[in-house]
């Protein structure tokens, strides 16, 4: 016991707030894993015993209560049932968790009620802390564009520190759904289209939220969601069905969940969709066979909002009795908001339809997490007014948000104007016209899935303010809105044109409204809404150089702009510090290095579009090849902007590809791949060097390219660095037709460069 406490103390000290970010990621990983092993074992053993003792004292009603989760009245992402008697039910031990209750006062008040229950079992408080709480970070898809796992971990760490100070024990994040369809509004919540990348992001985010481990007061439970394949909804329409081979499911959609489990994620959430006809909520293949058996997951699974009851309209359950039975037998442990468990489990046990051991297993999983969080020792340990105060306007957190914001921006175009790229802008002697519905926006910068506070409008930095703060006195900043985001009103176009005519450079800030991406926000057209593109055309017609900034939660289609506007920055929704981050990029205080985590289509007709598609028997040689090949007669196959693409103010040359051998043995071998990367431009900057492979022949058709490694490096102008990747046979495994994860010997092409269209090519053979 003494050893246990000493180690916990040392561990939480090393990874405390101030020192955490100074330790190098790799060293930190090794150190943390070593130090975590012993205390975790101790927690598990003590926890098991504690939970078993407690379980033996519980009535069936109390057990079922632990599986029941309610929302606070008011906040809803689905049908809301107002229960006048929630507090009474909590006091009677009929509620295990609440969602959407936030703040020390509110969580304390309800926790006080919970511990009046017969066995004094505390509540879990869960909330969608998707990209920050008090400090809002870029939306997860934007952050993914940083290709910086360390930063992604850092923003999750800060979000957890703030959330835990606001009484929260549990976030419903990260979303680790692979998303290949930008019509689906929820692409904004994840890490994009690639499975390899998605696994790394899942690990980073879980680690960030759970910090040095549950039990530390700044660590909250993460929740990998939505299990599974939610991003593959037919037609990109939210909640829609998913029909795919089990091979595809295992190869593309499940690995990020497994990565989250391997990183110790405490919980998973069901997805709303059915998979091949079986709703995920009652899908024992994914929940029992994969998650709980093959992956040995010891945490618990929460349903999505009402998803147990939704199996009735799905046509998979006859009534709530049937739905509860199917969900619990399949392995869904906690019922968010449907009340099916509350109303039916007792009867199901009495009728002999559900063995009580299934309920015991679910309850134990939940109680164990409460134990690990330390709630049985002190149910109020997350209710510390002083901590909440410290995290309310935390300058360090805002600084981090500004940095992560800069790194999320993707420079899509920077063509020369008068012989020189338009960006970066000078701060001096400039008349800038700032036009567009997002120019003075504040709360919109938080995007979808952010936590609202009454003072948001005052504390969120608008683009206008961010630019004004940095502009030299010798310069002038002019502003007009030009148009709204969605409507057809063009009455301000004249004023916008006049303003543009007075300026040296125009900055146009256009995009999607925050309620156009996110849950239940699928779009069939992913163009700039309203009259924004018309405004752009009118302003460009003045002949003034235009910089276009696009705020959005998903890849949009904007071909006219891509062809005609010299400079385009994709600025997503960057959060509390949005205006400062964008101004830093505009003025070259930060040289953009973001790379797209999703392919950007030319039109909606190309969707789903993703770089790692299979080859056909009639592949097109290029975009012009239409001769009885797999192509559109009216459209190119290539995306407008490729996965992994993004420019910099400087330029990089990637050359001299070398492989340590032209053979890689399947057993115990490694292949070293090196390239020379040189900064050949005029600015210091970062580049993401990306490695892709192509397995030329397989027992099942293999993707035309697959990301297998990347490194983000900083080079001073003129500097050159040798970058080394190591490939091992494990990196080349795939699921064969019998669902075995295997290596097959054969020939591979390899590509290194700065996007998924990298041309530098090598070749090797994987041998027995
Ligand atoms: C429904 C969403 O699908 C899920 O992601 C979210 O966590 C819950 N509602 C709770 O708000």
TrEMBL record:
SUPFAM superfamilies: (Trans)glycosidases, Beta-D-glucan exohydrolase, C-terminal domain. One of its GO terms (molecular function) is beta-glucosidase activity. One of its GO terms (biological process) is glucan catabolic process. It is an enzyme of class 3 (hydrolase). Pfam families: Fn3-like, Glyco_hydro_3, Glyco_hydro_3_C. It catalyses: Hydrolysis of terminal, non-reducing beta-D-glucosyl residues with release of beta-D-glucose. Its EC number is 3.2.1.21. It comes from the Bacteria. Keywords: Glycosidase, Hydrolase, Signal. Residues 687-756 form the Fibronectin type III-like domain. SMART domains: Fn3_like. Belongs to the glycosyl hydrolase 3 family. This is beta-glucosidase.
């Amino acid at each position: 016991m003494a050893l246990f406490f000493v180690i916990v103390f040392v561990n939480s000290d090393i990874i405390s707030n101030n020192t955490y970010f100074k330790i190098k990621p790799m060293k930190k990983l090794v150190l943390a894993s070593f130090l975590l092993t012993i205390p975790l074992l101790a927690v598990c053993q003590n926890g098991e015993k504690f939970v078993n003792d407690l379980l033996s004292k519980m009535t069936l009603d109390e057990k079922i209560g632990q599986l029941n989760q309610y929302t606070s009245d008011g906040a809803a992402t689905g049908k809301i049932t107002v229960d006048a008697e929630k507090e009474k039910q909590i006091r009677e031990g009929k509620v295990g968790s609440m969602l959407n209750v936030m703040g020390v006062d509110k969580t304390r008040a309800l926790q006080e009620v919970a511990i009046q229950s017969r066995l004094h079992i505390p509540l879990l408080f869960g909330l969608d802390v998707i990209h920050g709480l008090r400090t809002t970070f870029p939306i997860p898809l934007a952050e993914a564009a940083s290709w910086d796992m360390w930063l992604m971990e850092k923003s999750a760490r800060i979000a957890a520190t703030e959330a835990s100070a606001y009484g929260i024990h549990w976030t419903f994040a990260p979303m680790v759904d692979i998303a290949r369809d930008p019509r689906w509004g929820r692409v904004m919540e994840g890490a994009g289209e690639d499975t390899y990348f998605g696994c790394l992001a899942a690990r980073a985010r879980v680690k960030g939220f759970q910090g040095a481990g549950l039990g530390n007061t700044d660590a909250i439970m993460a929740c990998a969601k939505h299990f599974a394949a939610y991003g593959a909804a037919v037609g990109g329409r939210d909640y829609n069905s998913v029909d795919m081979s089990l091979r595809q499911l295992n190869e593309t959609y499940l690995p990020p969940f497994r990565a989250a489990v391997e990183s110790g994620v405490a919980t998973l959430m069901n997805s709303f969709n059915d998979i091949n006809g079986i709703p995920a909520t009652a899908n024992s293949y994914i929940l029992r066979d994969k998650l709980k058996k093959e992956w040995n997951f010891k945490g618990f699974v929460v349903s999505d909002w009402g998803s147990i009851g939704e199996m009735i309209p799905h046509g998979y359950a006859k009534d709530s009795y049937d739905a509860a039975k199917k969900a619990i037998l399949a392995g869904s442990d906690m019922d968010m908001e449907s009340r099916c468990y509350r109303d039916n489990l007792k009867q199901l046990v009495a009728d002999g339809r559900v063995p009580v051991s299934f309920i015991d297993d679910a309850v134990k999983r939940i109680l164990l997490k409460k134990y690990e969080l330390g709630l049985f020792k002190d149910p109020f340990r997350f209710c510390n007014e002083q901590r909440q105060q410290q995290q309310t306007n935390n300058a360090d957190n805002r600084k981090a948000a500004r940095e992560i914001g800069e790194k999320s921006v993707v420079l899509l175009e920077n063509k020369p104007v008068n012989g020189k790229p338009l960006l970066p802008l000078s701060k001096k002697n400039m008349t800038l016209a700032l036009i567009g519905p997002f120019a003075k926006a504040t709360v919109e910068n938080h995007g979808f899935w952010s936590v609202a506070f009454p003072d948001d409008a005052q504390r969120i930095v608008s683009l206008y303010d961010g630019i004004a703060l940095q502009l030299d006195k010798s310069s002038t900043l002019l502003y007009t809105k030009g148009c709204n985001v969605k409507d057809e009103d063009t009455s301000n176009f004249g004023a916008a044109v006049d303003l543009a005519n007075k300026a040296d450079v125009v900055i146009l800030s256009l995009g999607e409204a925050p309620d156009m991406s996110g849950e239940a926000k699928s779009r069939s057209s992913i163009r700039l809404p309203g009259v924004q593109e018309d405004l752009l055309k009118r302003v460009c017609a003045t002949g003034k150089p235009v910089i276009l900034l696009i705020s959005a939660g998903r890849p949009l289609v904007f071909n006219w702009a891509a062809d005609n506007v010299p400079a385009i920055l994709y600025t997503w929704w960057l959060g509390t510090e949005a205006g400062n981050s964008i101004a830093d990029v505009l003025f070259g205080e930060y040289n953009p290095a973001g790379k797209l985590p999703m392919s950007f289509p030319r039109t909606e007709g190309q969707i789903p579009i993703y770089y790692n598609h299979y080859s056909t028997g009639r592949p097109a040689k290029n975009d012009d090849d239409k001769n009885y090949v797999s192509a559109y007669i009216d459209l190119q196959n290539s995306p407008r902007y490729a996965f992994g693409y993004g420019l910099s103010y400087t330029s990089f040359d990637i050359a001299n590809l070398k492989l340590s051998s032209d053979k890689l043995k399947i057993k115990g071998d490694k292949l070293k791949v090196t390239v020379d990367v040189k900064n050949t431009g005029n600015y210091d900057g970062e580049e993401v060097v990306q490695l892709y492979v192509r397995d030329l022949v397989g027992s099942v058709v293999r993707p035309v390219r697959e990301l297998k490694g990347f490194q983000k490096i900083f080079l001073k102008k003129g500097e050159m660095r040798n970058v080394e990747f190591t490939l091992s046979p494990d990196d080349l495994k795939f699921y064969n037709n019998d669902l075995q994860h295997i290596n097959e010997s054969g020939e591979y092409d390899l590509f290194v460069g700065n996007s998924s269209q990298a041309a530098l090519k090598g070749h090797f053979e994987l041998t027995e």
